[in-house]
Write a structure and sequence with these properties.
Elements: H1 34-44, E1 48-51, H2 60-70, E2 73-78, E3 81-83, E4 96-97, E5 99-102, H3 105-120, E6 128-130, H4 131-136, E7 141-144, H5 151-168, H6 174-202, E8 207-212, H7 220-233, E9 236-240, H8 251-259, H9 280-291, H10 293-309, H11 343-349, H12 354-369, H13 378-399, H14 403-419, H15 435-439
Parallel strand pairs: 1-2, 3-6, 7-8, 8-9
Antiparallel strand pairs: 2-5, 3-4, 5-7
Helix pairs in contact: 1-2, 5-6, 5-7, 9-10, 11-13, 12-14
């Protein structure tokens, strides 16, 4: 483990952090890279750090690895988009922000499912979740109500706007004042209903109101009203910085990133003046004047309590293979005569794994269609096929994952692409050296003709799934 200097122990944990496009492919949102984030957190004295990308969990394995390297606890989170019903897809269907943090492996699995279903079933301009999904998959999760884009903060911002507007009205403008007062009552009722929803879903111990450490004029009055809400409903609070860049000096670079967005999606740069990884003292300097010393210290302590409640995740596992539907197939039997000479033909034919059997069927089919049996050196082909099947078999045993299933999946994807009329290369990279990939039409390169060694692509001494990067 690489040791880095610790300058001072911090009194809070960053629980709301976004990563750069390398991890969050949907958003031009952040300039933070995982390795630099973890190194800086170590140097600043943080015991833990969370990442909460919008609708993406792609950075979490890297976070886990980097945190383990530097002795920091990783907290896996997500900032999904929340709507009332994912089945409603019209221009009136709004979405709000939310933060979800996994406390344990159950929470992590639920987070993974929610992320996937938001893309698969909830996509409308953005991948979305609804309250019904949250209720079904809330176990093991901590919820905070995010930034100014969160549901409760949106209502608070509207209340603040109404209050400011009322102050500009003439004394005798009773009708407009009544209209604004009624709207404020409606907004307060919506806040009450929303808070009750979140408490019902996550429980009071796992739902937090979230202060944002910022002196932005839109944020300060919201922070003050959050303090009142927390006291009224007996809710716990945390404080975050909604980090989109690491250090204050990175703000200019982040501003350039924002300008690279399409014009209709660009955000105000000044909103991000404070969205970096702050020290505890920087948070105190901003938050003491807004919500007071006691509330600030409590909100910071609650971030530490959340971090302490997070259990170690079980991230490592064998690769998962999609469950590809295998059609009905029957061997012609052309390889049966060679079972004693080339044993891996028989092992695949009699394997308990349906993908092994089907993979051999595809090899037999290609062997016949390419007229390999009529070549003068057909035995060289048989020997090579047997050796490559052996490599697949041994690697599959070592990693406890079917290599045949992987290649059947790849071939299925390639077939779909070809049917769409798109082109696929003849054999990019080392996969072009593997004969059975040529025979099954994954590649178009006969490695016997070109004298290409199979071990460039796969070998049992490298027990891993090789890339078919055509």
């Amino acid at each position: 483990m690489e040791e880095l200097p610790i300058t001072k122990q911090q009194d809070y944990v960053p629980l709301h952090v976004h990563l750069d496009i390398g991890s969050n492919l949907i958003m031009l949102d952040s300039t933070i890279k995982v390795d630099k984030l973890v190194k800086q957190c170590k140097e600043m004295g943080f015991k833990a750090v969370a990442i909460t990308d919008h609708v993406s969990l792609s950075g979490h394995v890297k976070l886990y690895q980097e945190c383990n390297k530097h002795g920091i606890k990783p907290i896996i989170g997500l900032e999904p988009y929340l709507c009332d019903d994912i089945n409603i897809k019209d221009n009136n269907s709004r979405y709000d922000h939310l933060i979800l943090l996994a406390k344990n492996d159950v929470g992590l699995k639920n987070l993974q499912f929610l992320s996937s279903v938001s893309w698969e079933k909830g996509f409308y301009y953005r991948p979305r979740l609804d309250y019904n999904l949250l209720e079904q998959y809330s176990e093991g999760l901590v919820c905070t109500e995010a930034c100014l884009g969160g549901t409760i903060k949106k209502y608070l911002s509207k209340i603040i706007y109404c209050e400011i507007t009322m102050k500009t009205l003439e004394i005798d403008d009773i009708e407009k004042k009544d209209m604004l007062n009624n709207h404020i009552k409606e907004l307060k009722n919506n806040i009450t209903l929303t808070i009750k929803k979140f408490i019902n879903i996550f429980g009071k111990d796992n739902f937090y109101l979230e202060y944002q450490a910022s002196n932005h004029p839109d944020q300060i009055p919201v922070n003050k009203k959050l303090k009142i809400l927390a006291k009224h409903f007996g809710l716990k609070t945390i404080v975050t910085t909604d980090a989109h860049y690491l250090r204050p000096e990175d703000k200019e670079l982040h501003g350039i990133l924002l300008k690279s967005k399409p014009s209709n999606e660009r955000e105000q740069e000044d909103f991000y003046d404070y969205t970096y990884i702050m020290t505890s003292d920087e948070i105190r300097q901003i938050m003491y004047p807004q919500i007071g010393e006691e509330e600030t210290e409590l909100a910071m302590k609650n971030t530490v309590d959340i971090a302490n409640s997070v259990e170690e995740y079980e991230i490592k596992h064998n690769p998962f293979m999609p469950d590809i539907k295998i059609p009905v197939f029957n061997y012609v039997g052309i390889f049966e005569q060679y079972y004693d000479i080339y044993p891996y033909f028989k092992m695949f034919a009699t394997s308990d794994n349906i993908y092994d059997k089907y993979w051999l069927y595809l090899i037999e089919k290609g062997y016949i269609e390419k007229n390999i049996k009529d070549k003068d050196n057909y035995r060289e082909y048989l020997q090579r096929i047997n050796r490559e099947l052996e490599v697949f078999w041994l690697i599959s045993e070592k990693i406890n994952t079917s290599i045949s299933a992987y290649h059947v999946t790849v071939l299925t994807i390639f077939d779909i692409v070809r049917k769409c009329g798109s082109l696929i290369s003849c054999g990019r990279g080392s996969v072009g050296s593997f004969l059975i990939c040529y025979i099954t039409d994954i590649t178009q390169i006969d490695s016997i003709v070109y004298n290409l060694p199979y071990w460039r692509y796969a070998h049992e001494d490298r027990a891993e799934i090789s890339d078919c990067d055509n």
